[in-house]
Specification:
Layout: H1 3-11, H2 21-28, E1 31-36, E2 41-43, E3 51-57, E4 60-65, E5 71-77, E6 82-83, H3 85-89, E7 97-100, E8 104-110, H4 111-120, H5 122-145, H6 151-162, E9 165-166, E10 172-173, H7 179-186, H8 190-202, E11 206-209, E12 212-215
Antiparallel strand pairs: 1-8, 2-7, 3-6, 3-8, 4-5, 4-7, 9-10, 10-12, 11-12
Helix pairs in contact: 1-2, 4-5, 6-7, 6-8, 7-8
Protein backbone atom coordinates (compact mmCIF):
# COMPACT_ATOMS: atom_id res chain seq x y z
CA UNK A 1 0.00 0.00 0.00
CA UNK A 2 1.40 3.40 -0.97
CA UNK A 3 1.76 6.22 1.52
CA UNK A 4 -1.06 8.28 0.00
CA UNK A 5 -3.44 5.32 -0.09
CA UNK A 6 -2.50 4.36 3.48
CA UNK A 7 -3.28 7.87 4.72
CA UNK A 8 -6.59 7.94 2.82
CA UNK A 9 -7.50 4.53 4.25
CA UNK A 10 -6.74 5.70 7.78
CA UNK A 11 -8.67 8.94 7.28
CA UNK A 12 -11.78 6.93 6.28
CA UNK A 13 -11.76 5.00 9.56
CA UNK A 14 -13.70 6.45 12.51
CA UNK A 15 -10.78 5.80 14.84
CA UNK A 16 -8.51 8.16 12.91
CA UNK A 17 -11.04 10.63 11.50
CA UNK A 18 -9.85 13.50 13.73
CA UNK A 19 -6.12 12.75 13.65
CA UNK A 20 -3.99 15.44 11.96
CA UNK A 21 -2.24 14.78 8.66
CA UNK A 22 1.33 14.69 10.10
CA UNK A 23 0.22 12.12 12.68
CA UNK A 24 -1.46 10.01 10.01
CA UNK A 25 1.68 10.15 7.91
CA UNK A 26 3.73 9.02 10.89
CA UNK A 27 1.38 6.11 11.52
CA UNK A 28 1.02 5.10 7.87
CA UNK A 29 4.75 4.47 7.64
CA UNK A 30 4.39 1.60 10.14
CA UNK A 31 1.34 -0.12 8.62
CA UNK A 32 1.35 -3.47 6.85
CA UNK A 33 -1.69 -4.50 4.81
CA UNK A 34 -2.85 -8.07 5.24
CA UNK A 35 -5.72 -10.04 3.75
CA UNK A 36 -7.41 -13.10 5.25
CA UNK A 37 -10.08 -15.40 3.76
CA UNK A 38 -13.31 -16.18 5.57
CA UNK A 39 -12.98 -18.38 8.70
CA UNK A 40 -9.36 -17.37 9.32
CA UNK A 41 -7.98 -16.94 12.83
CA UNK A 42 -6.33 -13.53 13.09
CA UNK A 43 -5.69 -13.73 16.83
CA UNK A 44 -5.58 -16.88 18.94
CA UNK A 45 -6.57 -16.80 22.60
CA UNK A 46 -3.72 -17.74 24.91
CA UNK A 47 -0.95 -17.01 22.42
CA UNK A 48 1.47 -14.11 22.61
CA UNK A 49 0.71 -11.26 20.25
CA UNK A 50 2.54 -8.16 19.12
CA UNK A 51 0.24 -6.76 16.44
CA UNK A 52 -2.76 -4.47 16.53
CA UNK A 53 -5.21 -4.58 13.61
CA UNK A 54 -7.50 -2.03 12.03
CA UNK A 55 -10.35 -3.63 10.10
CA UNK A 56 -10.45 -2.07 6.64
CA UNK A 57 -12.99 -4.41 4.99
CA UNK A 58 -15.18 -7.25 6.22
CA UNK A 59 -16.31 -8.41 9.66
CA UNK A 60 -14.74 -10.45 12.45
CA UNK A 61 -16.00 -12.09 15.62
CA UNK A 62 -14.27 -11.87 18.98
CA UNK A 63 -14.56 -15.16 20.85
CA UNK A 64 -13.47 -16.73 24.12
CA UNK A 65 -13.49 -20.33 25.30
CA UNK A 66 -15.80 -21.08 28.23
CA UNK A 67 -14.80 -23.29 31.13
CA UNK A 68 -16.45 -26.17 29.30
CA UNK A 69 -14.35 -25.50 26.20
CA UNK A 70 -17.22 -24.03 24.16
CA UNK A 71 -16.57 -20.99 21.98
CA UNK A 72 -18.56 -17.94 23.10
CA UNK A 73 -18.92 -14.86 20.91
CA UNK A 74 -18.16 -11.67 22.82
CA UNK A 75 -18.50 -9.17 20.00
CA UNK A 76 -18.80 -8.77 16.24
CA UNK A 77 -16.75 -5.98 14.70
CA UNK A 78 -17.07 -4.31 11.30
CA UNK A 79 -15.16 -1.89 9.09
CA UNK A 80 -13.42 0.84 11.07
CA UNK A 81 -13.01 -1.20 14.25
CA UNK A 82 -9.64 -2.03 15.74
CA UNK A 83 -8.58 -4.92 17.94
CA UNK A 84 -5.51 -6.51 19.48
CA UNK A 85 -4.40 -3.19 20.97
CA UNK A 86 -4.11 -4.55 24.52
CA UNK A 87 -1.22 -6.82 23.50
CA UNK A 88 0.65 -3.71 22.37
CA UNK A 89 0.08 -1.90 25.67
CA UNK A 90 0.37 -4.97 27.90
CA UNK A 91 2.23 -7.82 26.15
CA UNK A 92 0.97 -10.97 27.97
CA UNK A 93 -1.12 -13.63 26.20
CA UNK A 94 -4.11 -12.72 24.07
CA UNK A 95 -7.28 -12.71 26.16
CA UNK A 96 -9.60 -13.68 23.27
CA UNK A 97 -9.56 -14.98 19.71
CA UNK A 98 -10.55 -13.02 16.61
CA UNK A 99 -11.84 -14.87 13.55
CA UNK A 100 -13.03 -13.57 10.17
CA UNK A 101 -16.70 -13.86 9.21
CA UNK A 102 -16.00 -12.58 5.69
CA UNK A 103 -12.88 -12.18 3.57
CA UNK A 104 -11.19 -9.31 5.40
CA UNK A 105 -8.53 -6.70 4.74
CA UNK A 106 -6.69 -5.31 7.74
CA UNK A 107 -3.98 -2.79 8.46
CA UNK A 108 -1.50 -4.36 10.89
CA UNK A 109 0.67 -2.37 13.26
CA UNK A 110 3.49 -3.97 15.27
CA UNK A 111 4.08 -3.17 18.93
CA UNK A 112 7.35 -1.44 18.09
CA UNK A 113 5.73 0.67 15.36
CA UNK A 114 2.74 1.44 17.59
CA UNK A 115 4.89 2.73 20.46
CA UNK A 116 7.00 4.80 18.08
CA UNK A 117 3.90 6.33 16.51
CA UNK A 118 2.36 7.12 19.92
CA UNK A 119 5.59 8.74 21.10
CA UNK A 120 5.66 11.09 18.12
CA UNK A 121 1.92 11.61 17.53
CA UNK A 122 -0.10 13.13 20.40
CA UNK A 123 -3.17 13.19 18.14
CA UNK A 124 -2.95 9.45 17.62
CA UNK A 125 -2.54 8.85 21.35
CA UNK A 126 -5.68 10.89 22.03
CA UNK A 127 -7.60 9.00 19.33
CA UNK A 128 -6.74 5.66 20.95
CA UNK A 129 -7.60 6.98 24.43
CA UNK A 130 -10.99 8.24 23.19
CA UNK A 131 -11.79 4.89 21.62
CA UNK A 132 -10.78 2.93 24.72
CA UNK A 133 -12.91 5.28 26.85
CA UNK A 134 -15.84 4.79 24.47
CA UNK A 135 -15.49 1.02 24.79
CA UNK A 136 -15.35 1.25 28.58
CA UNK A 137 -18.51 3.40 28.64
CA UNK A 138 -20.21 0.91 26.34
CA UNK A 139 -19.21 -1.99 28.60
CA UNK A 140 -20.34 -0.18 31.74
CA UNK A 141 -23.63 0.82 30.10
CA UNK A 142 -24.28 -2.76 29.05
CA UNK A 143 -23.50 -3.99 32.56
CA UNK A 144 -25.80 -1.42 34.19
CA UNK A 145 -28.66 -2.17 31.80
CA UNK A 146 -28.58 -5.96 32.05
CA UNK A 147 -30.41 -6.18 35.41
CA UNK A 148 -33.21 -3.86 34.21
CA UNK A 149 -33.69 -4.75 30.56
CA UNK A 150 -35.70 -7.74 29.49
CA UNK A 151 -34.07 -10.35 27.27
CA UNK A 152 -36.32 -9.13 24.46
CA UNK A 153 -34.95 -5.58 24.84
CA UNK A 154 -31.34 -6.78 25.06
CA UNK A 155 -31.83 -8.90 21.96
CA UNK A 156 -33.27 -5.91 20.10
CA UNK A 157 -30.34 -3.72 21.14
CA UNK A 158 -27.83 -6.33 20.00
CA UNK A 159 -29.47 -6.88 16.61
CA UNK A 160 -29.81 -3.11 16.05
CA UNK A 161 -26.05 -2.82 16.52
CA UNK A 162 -25.12 -5.82 14.38
CA UNK A 163 -27.59 -5.44 11.51
CA UNK A 164 -25.96 -2.92 9.17
CA UNK A 165 -26.40 -4.08 5.57
CA UNK A 166 -29.78 -3.09 4.08
CA UNK A 167 -31.47 -5.52 1.69
CA UNK A 168 -33.48 -4.52 -1.38
CA UNK A 169 -36.51 -3.76 0.81
CA UNK A 170 -34.54 -1.60 3.23
CA UNK A 171 -34.52 -4.17 6.03
CA UNK A 172 -31.14 -4.20 7.80
CA UNK A 173 -29.40 -7.58 7.78
CA UNK A 174 -27.27 -9.14 10.53
CA UNK A 175 -24.37 -11.55 10.08
CA UNK A 176 -25.21 -15.23 10.50
CA UNK A 177 -25.81 -15.99 14.18
CA UNK A 178 -27.21 -18.95 16.06
CA UNK A 179 -29.58 -18.46 19.00
CA UNK A 180 -26.77 -19.70 21.27
CA UNK A 181 -24.40 -17.03 19.97
CA UNK A 182 -27.04 -14.34 20.55
CA UNK A 183 -27.61 -15.76 24.04
CA UNK A 184 -23.88 -15.52 24.83
CA UNK A 185 -23.81 -11.85 23.84
CA UNK A 186 -26.92 -10.86 25.82
CA UNK A 187 -26.02 -12.99 28.86
CA UNK A 188 -28.92 -15.42 28.97
CA UNK A 189 -29.86 -18.95 27.91
CA UNK A 190 -30.49 -20.14 24.36
CA UNK A 191 -34.06 -21.11 25.24
CA UNK A 192 -34.81 -17.60 26.53
CA UNK A 193 -33.40 -16.01 23.36
CA UNK A 194 -35.50 -18.36 21.23
CA UNK A 195 -38.63 -17.10 23.01
CA UNK A 196 -37.51 -13.45 22.62
CA UNK A 197 -36.83 -13.90 18.90
CA UNK A 198 -40.26 -15.51 18.49
CA UNK A 199 -41.88 -12.48 20.18
CA UNK A 200 -39.97 -10.02 17.98
CA UNK A 201 -41.07 -11.88 14.87
CA UNK A 202 -44.68 -11.88 16.08
CA UNK A 203 -44.39 -8.11 16.61
CA UNK A 204 -43.34 -7.72 12.97
CA UNK A 205 -40.04 -6.16 14.07
CA UNK A 206 -37.87 -9.07 12.97
CA UNK A 207 -37.58 -11.59 10.20
CA UNK A 208 -35.34 -14.62 10.35
CA UNK A 209 -33.97 -16.45 7.34
CA UNK A 210 -31.70 -19.28 8.38
CA UNK A 211 -29.13 -17.77 10.74
CA UNK A 212 -29.56 -14.20 9.51
CA UNK A 213 -31.92 -11.64 11.02
CA UNK A 214 -33.64 -8.75 9.28
CA UNK A 215 -34.82 -5.63 11.13
CA UNK A 216 -37.70 -3.64 9.70
CA UNK A 217 -36.78 -0.33 8.02
CA UNK A 218 -38.76 2.04 10.25
CA UNK A 219 -36.89 1.05 13.41
Amino acid sequence: MGSKEAIESLRALPLFSEVEEPDLRQLAGHLIERRFPRDSTLIQEGQAGDYMYVLREGRVKVTKLSGAGREKILEILGTGAFFGEMALLDPPERSASVKSLDPVRVLALSRQGFLQALAHSPGLAMAVIRELARRLRHTNLDASHIPYQSVKERTQDLLRRLATDPDEEGWRVSPALTHQEVADMVATSRETVTRAVKQLKQDGWLRQEGKRYRIRPED
